[in-house]
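User: Modeling request: complex.
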Amino acid sequence: MALSMNAAADIKSVIGLFQDPDPAADAMDALSEAGFTQAEYEVLTGTPYPEGTFGEAEPVHKLYRFPLLGAACGFIFGLLLTVGTQIAYPVVTGGKPILSIPPMAIVMYEGTMLGAIIMTVFGIVFESRLPRLFMGAYDDRITEGYIGIVVTTQKDRISNAEAVLKEAGAEDIKRGWEGD
Amino acid sequence: MQEHIQLTQKEINRELLRGIFVWPKWWFASVSFLILVFLVGAGAFGYMINKGVGVTGLNRPVFWGVYMVNFVFWIGISHAGIMISAILRLTQAEWRRPITRAAEVLTVFSLMGAMFAAALVHTGRPWRAYWVFPYDFSRGVWMNVRSPLIWDPSAVNTYLIASSLFVFVALLPDLAIVRDRSRGWVRVMYSFMCLGWRGTPRQWKLQAVAGILLSALVLPVFVSVHSIVSWDFAVQIGTEGWHSTIFAPYFIIGAIHSGVSAVVTVMVLMVWLWKWDNYLRPDHFDAIGRLLIVVATTWFFFFFLEWVFALYTLEGPEIALRELQIFDWPMSGLFGLFLATAFFIPVPLWLFKRVRRNLLLMFLTTLLVNVGMWLERFLIIVPALLRKSPMIFDWGTYRPSIIEIFMVTAVFAWVTLGMLIFSKVFPLLPLFDIKESMVGRDEIKIGRRTVPASIRE
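Assistant: Request completed. Predicted assembly structure:
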């Protein structure tokens, strides 16, 4: 445990800022050539770019499972709610059956959709790796159009990463642990 | 042809965050006035609770008056957001980008307004509104699932939660932009709200998938909500004019008509008040104007069919009701006004490109549509109840009291107030969406012409 905490303390991040996509993509290539794995660096942008613009790996996600799970839970909840409440308090109105399918279907339908939507949103947040308590290496200029390449690696390799980013044309380089 | 104005991300931030960081005098004046109107409505509500529903114009046989009209009207307006946002997202219409957020937010506040108009006001005993929820524990009484008054809250609450989550998910990247532009406790607040958004490719990919997936999930809810509202009426077999099989699609298309019109009204106000004319171009008004022609014409076709189906049976009471609606004063006057404002004035005007690109005319015509659509709901609800029906042995009349008028006005104030306050706290135009369109924008030369083009995956 103590060993893993020490290892975590040795992990640091650094960000290089680029104004244009081309040098940012070159920096990603240079990091790869310098021996950094794809897990060690990532690109941050203030706006979505087409997938693969910076040569990054295509993100894999399992979001589509979430609405299915939510819909199933919502349907079961709606079924139990409509059947359970009508059996628990059976008031006959207009000579209609206590368990009347059409009105039950309405509530069950809404339950199904609500379950699917809530779980989808949960899935979006979860799969986006949010919430993130610590920002690490980040710069406010990213949401002004700058492209940030963040390298998160062992402390002793940080200077190497900084050199690669500088070589690739980074306008500014910031260390995550030093703050603004 | 799409008119393109190329701006840097810094310029977009500065212009679109003006709504949050600049405090114009008109904003304070408008908010103060709207709070006053809302408080007057709240006071009227308190008075009604204290004295009883006898202070309203509601009496046998007209038990549903302007409160219910207001409920149906605001549920209708709430269809704006999802119609504009979800359908245009799914079809990847480029011109949707600056419109979606305002439309979605309008959905949320109008749904809250409808809930206020119905759940809190119309029940008569609002302190028992929780009876519609599955809450028992001590009473031993559960809600009756077979009642439309249970279907309504289940559908409206689902729609409200879904719309709010839809807005929240699409807000995350923009909240990060506001976070990066603010300092102190404001920065902490936005950091908390954006959940630590950084803008990794993974987050952007999920954001794109979320837009499509949530649109696809919210659309069926959107269809169900106004269908269920229409069944509040259609399942009542004893009331002429209501027991119609076409009511569900007729209500939905009517909701879209009034909702999309309301979005145009809001768009014009955004240009006038926040000077966002670099983003809401005449092209956008042109495109949405053409959409409005299609929607309005479809709505009019359903309206026509509803009348044909009603009269085709040649049943005396049904014909008598229709005569009351179109020949007896004051209903005849309201009916004429409704038809003129909801269809015959705006639609022929929208056929002209010059009108569709004219902000003032679009503002006035879309306002007219919503005057007409409010009257439409009034003419569906009130005349049908005025007449003697088999289970209620009275003929009646109805005149809304000042208390009702105050409360109806308060809901209008609430929705406007909600939009104004939202625009001070959150970006009302989706910055990241607009920036994305700028990134993928270029000009291509074809022969001797250079035309703007949008590049998308």
